[in-house]
Every structure is written in structure tokens, then in C-alpha cells.
Amino acid sequence: IVTSSELESLILEITLIKKYTPKYNILLKDDKSYPYIEITSEKYPRLRVVRSISRKKNTSKLYGPYPNVSAARKTVDMLNRLYPLRKCEHLPKKECLYYHIHECLGYCIKEVDSTTIKNMTDEIASFLKGNSKVIKEKIEEEMLKASNAMNYERALELKNMLKDIDITLTKQKIDLHHNYVLDVVSYTKEENYLSITIFFIREGLLFGKHNEILLTMDNEQDDLLQYLINFYEKNMHPKELLVPNELDVSLLEDYLKIKIAKPMRGDLKKLVDLAKENSEIALHEKLEKLKQDYNAKQEALEELARLLHKDTVSRMECFDNSHLFGTFYVGGMVVFKDFEPLKSEYRKFKISTDVKDDLSAMKEVLYRRYYRAIMENQVLPDLLLMDGGELQVSVAKEILDSLKLNIPIIGLKKDNKHRTSVVIDQDFNPLDIKADSNLFLYLTRIQDEVHLFLPSQTVQAS
Questions:
Q1: What is the tens place of the pLDDT at every residue in 248-279?
Q2: How far apart are CA 128 and CA 205, in angstroms?
Q3: 266: left (phi over 0), alpha (psi -120 to 50) or beta
Q4: 411: number of CA atoms within 13 Å, CB side?
Q5: How far apart are CA 411 and CA 409, in angstroms?
Q6: Any idea of the CA torsion for 415, 418, 422, 423, to the nearest 10 degrees?
Q7: DSSP character string of 323-377
Q8: Which has the closest alpha carbon to 253: 218, 229, 230?
Q9: In what order do the strands lie in the sheet with 193-202?
């Protein structure tokens, strides 16, 4: 499709991706949004945590984003207890419990002076911008009153509030001594991975950061551009965005309609460099973890092949049954390759109503699965895992023998506390697998996966 400008082309691409959601394009399908603290614009305002900022806000005030959602909720809870703002979404016909415990002024039963409301919201807004002095003094005053009245439980609660302010608000911020309201973006690319870091600067305070690591096979600047467009469609636009000097941001500036700067020196340049350093650290940690995971999986696969006297073991299929009070049996199969799940190949089996016990249900599932695999020339597994001990293994062996299939079988036996304790082979001999080994961990993960798969999906015949 030919367009008249690069910006039109970009907008069209974004529109088409959202409309058709192509399978392998993930940059514009991420739904991550951060929480904000909102002071609503109603006659009697409320204080709450919100995520969606796309709806019309009128004159509502938003503060954030808060990468630490628990800090945002804890802050709102604390402020709601200190300031008797309205708590109800809709005004009830009579006062509620909040009024009786002095956490609401009873907006539903009396007219409250607008000056009182403005003073409360101004103090809250000042606190959310980083000025905690007024609220700290207020808490200390209340704490002293509670202590003098020998209400020590209330005094301790207020003391903990002061501690929460220091931990969840003060210590996670870096004061830049200027009232900057901006975001800082930088990135690192290595081995087809793109690491993106965004700093949130509000009123000169670094409230937190966002980091995302993506697979990229294209130009990293194009991918970064698309990612930022998606991110800021779901989060508030800052007044200004700082980016590295090498980025071409003309399209991004036109699309987001915000000022984008490339600082060359000073404190702002140091912030961009710090974001770059954070993106590098996050990416190196990710690559190191991937390397460790790969090595651990390879060692576990080699150990499993050695125990089963095979050259290699790659594809594994695990089965389990579920039922409702002994009826309505459903079978489930999960598939792993090199200990990585192949979720598109998971299957459910709706079992005939004549089946009344677990072993008969398992026989039906196994027969249907491998008879169909033979008839349709499907890929067969290198290993069959059974969730159970000797009985389940013997059932699997009976079905495979009847179909003349030579597939190794192992069973994952549980102890009397319903925890997997022993792995047995198809001759019921325990395999020498230590409970703290990577192999044991990966096998039990497959077992857990089939348990999770059965009750959580819609039953479909297979």
C-alpha cells in the first residue's frame, strides 16, 4: 500500500498489526500498562489506583507511573486513612462504616465545604509530587495524640505508616534537584536481543524504571520505535522524552506529539547513559540466564538418555486423567521438546461415558493417541511419561505393545504426602535420579504442567 509520507506509513502499519495481530509480531501486541494514582475530578473526589488512561479524564489528576504496584496501592491506602476523602464509587443513601471510623466526612448525608476538600487534595497532590514533609508532620502529630491517650495500637500503626513512606516512596527515588517531568529511554542490542530501559522522572524524582527484553531480527531502531509507540498508547505521555543521540526520532515526535530531546552533556546526558547501563545489565543477566538454562537442560537430557540407554531423548509426552466424582473422565496430553513446552501440540481427550475408572480411561486415551499417530504418520515421542507408578506404567506398556510401538516409558511415583519421590522405568525399576538434580526438576515440571492443563482448558474431543 503506497502512502504519501513516512508518518502515514507508520500509522497504517500500526493499524494493520492491531487489526490482524500477526503471529510473529509481538512489539505492538504487548498490553503492559503501569498503575497511576488518580485524584478524581468529581465534586467529592476519590483517590484510587488506575491502569487504563485512555478514557477521558476531564480534569482528573494522575500521578505516576508506579512500576511497583504494591507501593502504589500501599500509598493510596495510607492516604485514604489519613484524609477523609470519599471512598464509595456511588454515593449511598446513608452513611457507611468509613464515616463512623472517621475516614470519610459523610458526603452522602451532608454538604462538605469545598475549601476543606481543596486543602486535602492539595496536600495529597504535594505529597505525590515528592513533598512528604506535610504528611509526615501530620502522622507524627496523630501518633503523639494516640500515644498520650494510651492508644498504643493506633500509635504503632501510625509509626509503621512513617516507615512505609521511607521504604516505598523516599528510598526508591533519586532527587535530581530540578522539577523535571520526563521519561528517559535507552537500549542495547546483542545476539538478536533488544533490551529497552525507560526511566520515569516526575517532579525531578526518579520514581522507577521499566525494562523489556525482546527478540529482534530487524533494525533495532525500527523495533524500538514501534515498541515506544505501543508503550505510550497504554501509558501517560511525559512532557518530554530523552533518547540517545543516534536515534532518528522525527516520526516518533510527530506521532506522539511530544518534545523529544537528545542531550549531549550535563545531568540529562548522564541520565541517558544510566538508562543505557541499566539496559546492558538487564540484557547480560538475561543472556547469562539463558546460557545457564540451556546448559542445565543439555546436561539433564544427556543424563536421561544415559539412564534409558538411548543415544538421544528430545520429544516427551506426558499423560494424566481428570474426572468429576468418578464420572465425566477427561484425558490430557502435554508435549515437551528438550524440556521446552510445545503448547500447540497439547491435546484433550473426551472419554466415553462407559469408562468408570482411571486405568480404563488411560487405556482409551493412550490407544486413541498412538493409533491415530500411526494412521496419520505423526511424529512419535522419544519418551512417554506417566503420572503414577507401576499400574499406570503397565497400562501404557500394554497399549504400546498392542500397537507394536517401542517407546520407553517412565513413571513418576508419589509418596504418601502426594509429592513425587521416585522415577521408575517400564520394568518398575527405580532410576538413579537425585531429587535435587536438574533432571528430576524438569521431569516434575512436565508432570505439573499436565496437572495444570487438565482443569484449566475447555474440553474438546481429540
A1: 888 888 888 899 999 998 888 988 999 999 99
A2: 11
A3: left
A4: 20
A5: 7
A6: 140
A7: EETTEEEEEEEEEEETTEE-GGG-EEEE--TT--SHHHHHHHHHHHHHHHHHHTT
A8: 229
A9: 205-215, 193-202, 182-190, 240-242, 259-261
Q: Does residue 242 contact residue 266 with C-beta atoms inside 8 Å?
A: no
pLDDT tens, 161-209? Answer: 887 776 655 545 555 667 788 999 999 999 889 999 999 988 777 778 8
Residue 310 · residue 425 · CB < 8 Å: no
State the amino acid at position 312 in one-letter form: T
Pairwise pLDDT comparison (130 vs 301), residue with the higher score: 301
User: What is the Cβ-side half-sphere exposure of residue 389, based on CA atoms within 13 angstroms?
Assistant: 12
Q: How many CB atoms lie within 10 A of CB 149?
A: 10
User: What is the grid cell recorded at 214?
Assistant: 525482546
Buried b (16+ CB within 10 A) or exposed e, 341-374: eeeeebbbbebeeebeebebbbbbbbebbbeebe
How far, in Å, CA of 25 to CA of 34, rounded? Answer: 22
pLDDT on residue 462: 43
Residues whose CB is less than 8 angstroms from the CB of residue 206 and which lie 6 or more positions away in sequence, other chains included: 173, 174, 176, 199, 200
Per-residue cell: 168: 516505598
- The span from the CA of 352 to the CA of 364, in Å, is 9
- Given a contact cutoff of 8 angstroms between Cβ atoms, the answer to whether 317 and 384 are in contact is yes
Residues 321, 356 contacting (CB under 8 angstroms): no
